[in-house]
Prior knowledge:
- Pfam families: SufE.
- This protein has helices at about 10-20, 25-35, 80-90, 95-100, 105-110, 120-135, and strands at about 60-65, 70-75.
- By secondary structure, it is of the alpha+beta class.
- It has a two-stranded antiparallel sheet with strand order 1-2.
- α2 (about 25-35) crosses α3 (about 80-90).
- It is globular, with a radius of gyration of 14 Å.
Amino acid sequence: MTDSLGQQKPVNIKALLQACRSKEETFKALVTLSKTLPRLSAEKKTEENKVKGCESAVWLVVEESHGIRHFKADSDAKLMRGVLVAILSLVEGKMLADIQKMDLKAELAELNLSSYLTSSRTNGVLAILNKINTV
Length: 135
């Protein structure tokens, strides 16, 4: 099931990733998810939209309409694009105050991504979460 932006609903992504029983299954699921993330145009890949602290290039665009936040993101790394889909599925269509009340680190911990989050990648994910909470 997808939302209006073509992104999968959080429950489906959570269930998909939690159902993975091996590193290989998780990798395949993340690659599949990466294909659902629309690519950003070159005009959106600006320094302002770039997330500092990520191992790979990651761009995050936050748009707000009537207090509701909408996110667009991209990365030059396929695996990171899958991780972005998982992260955005948690926050898409919510108000900033609601996002800030969430424990996004705990939510991500439930998605079985730990084997893919090396220390440098974890720093990048934390930078993404920080940008989601502050922009």
